Amino acid sequence: MKKTVLLLVIGLMASACAQQVKPADNPDNIPAPTGTMPTTKTFPIVRVEAPNEVDLACAGFVTRQLLPNTNYVSGGLYTPNTTKYANGDIIYLTGKYDLGQQYQIVRELQDPNRFELYPGQFGMLKQMGQPYSTVGVVRIVDVRSKDAIGQVEFSCEHIVPGDYVVKYQKPDLLPAHQPFQFDRFLPANGKTSGRIVMAKDFDGYLGTGSKVYMNVGANQGVKAGEYFRAFRGYEADLHDPTDSLSFKASATEDTQKKPAAMEANFLTKTGGPVIRVRDLPRRAVGEVLILSTTPTTSTGMIVFALEDVHIGDGVELDSIN
User: With 0-12 CB in 10 A as exposed, 13-18 as middle and 19+ as buried, what is 320?
Assistant: First the structure.
C-alpha cells in the first residue's frame, strides 16, 4: 500500500513538472523580458516557413506607379476556343520584346466585392495605389510576326488576354529563420508599424503562406527580408458587426451576486465590474516576412500564424530581425 501511494505521489510530481517550462523550451537561454514568467502558451517556440521562388514571383504588389499597358497578352495557339493559359502553353504578345528573354505577366486588379472588411479599408487602399497580381512568367521564342510568340514557363494562375507584360527579374531567395520564441503578448515596441490593408485574391482570413499588402514601405525604412509581427486588439472585434455580438452575450454565472459586464453591453447594468475592452492585452497572431517593397507599400508572406490573421490587423517591425 505504501509503495502504491509513493508511486502515485511521484507520478503527480512528474506530471506537474512536465507542465512547467523546461530548459528545452528555451534552447538559447534567452532571458525573460521584465514583467513576464514565460510558459509554452505565452512564449511558444515557433518555426517559420521560408518562401520559395514561386512564392516570390507570384506574390503580387500594390504601387502608386501605374504600369504601362502597351505590352499585353493578345491570345494563344487555339484562340478563340481557348482563353486561359497555363504552364507550357503558347501565347501571343502585343508589343516589343527581345528574343529569348523572360517576361512577367501581371494583372491590374479590382475587387468585385464592394464590402469593406474593416472601416476605412477602401480609402486606405486608394492611398496605397493600384493592386496588381503576378500571374506567370513567359519566355519569348519567336519575334518574326507582328505579335511575338511566347511559351509560359510557369503560371501562378490562369493567364488571360489583356493581362499586361513587363520585364522579369528573377527574385533573390530569402534565408530561412531559425526557430525562435514568439512573445504572444508583446506590448508596442515603438518601431515601424502599419496595417494589413489587403491580401492576395482579396482574401479576408489568412494563414501560413498567405500573401499580404501593407501600408508601410521603403520610405519608412522597410526592407525585403525583415519580419513584422501581426497583432490584434480586442477593439477590432468590438467594432466588427458580427464579432461584436459576442460581447453582448451573457458570460456570467447565476450564482454571481454582481457579475461583470463588458463595456460594449451598455444595456446590462449589474452593479459589478465593467470590463474595458481597450485595456485588454493586445495579442500577436502571426509573423510576416517582407518579400518586396515600393516606396509606400510592402508585400509580405505570413510565415507563421497562431490563429487566423485578418485584413485590418496591425503589423510592427519585430525584434527577431
Answer: middle
- Count of C-beta atoms within a 10 Å radius of residue 29: 6
Which residues have a Cβ under 8 Å from the Cβ of 196 and sit 6 or more positions away? 212, 213, 214, 230, 288, 309, 310, 311, 312, 313, 314, 315
pLDDT, tens digit (0-9, with 9 covering 90-100), for 230-258 = 999 888 777 777 777 777 777 778 888 88
CA distances from residue 121 to 118, 125, 312 in whole angstroms, order as listed: 6, 6, 8
The conformational region for residue 4 under phi > 0 = left, psi -120 to 50 = alpha, else beta, is: alpha
Rounded to two decimals, what is the model's pTM? Answer: 0.85
- The string of pLDDT tens digits covering residues 122-139 is 999 999 999 999 999 999
More confident residue, 190 or 273: 190
C-alpha torsion sign, points 279, 283, 289, 292:
negative
Cα–Cα distance measured from residue 225 to residue 173, given in angstroms and rounded to the nearest whole number = 9
Interatomic CA distance for residues 107 and 159, integer angstroms: 9
